[in-house]
Amino acid sequence: MKKVPNKIQPAVHNLGELIALVGRYSRNQGETIATVADLLDRGRVRLQSRGHKVRVRIS
User: Fold this and answer.
1) Residue 31 is part of which domain span?
2) Any domain includes 36
C-alpha cells in the first residue's frame, strides 16, 4: 500500500517576520536580502494584501 504524503499547511507571516526568520540563519544582511529576493522571485513565497495576491518585481 502506498503512503500518501502529508500536505504542509502554509504558514502566514508578514514580510518583516519572513526577513527576521531568514536573517536568523544567514551570515550577513546581504545574504538575507539575496535569499528573500530569491524566494520571492522563484515563487516559493507569496505576498498577499487583504487576501489578494500581490506581484513582486525583483530587479
Assistant:
1) 15-54
2) yes
- Name the packing angle between helices 29-42 and 15-25 (round to 10°): 120
> Does residue 5 form part of some domain?
no
Global pTM reads: 0.73
Query: Largest alpha-carbon pair distance within the chain?
Result: 48
46 is a domain residue: yes
pLDDT in tens, 3-58: 766 777 777 888 999 999 999 999 999 999 999 999 998 988 888 888 888 887 77
Express as a percent the part of the chain with pLDDT over 70: 90
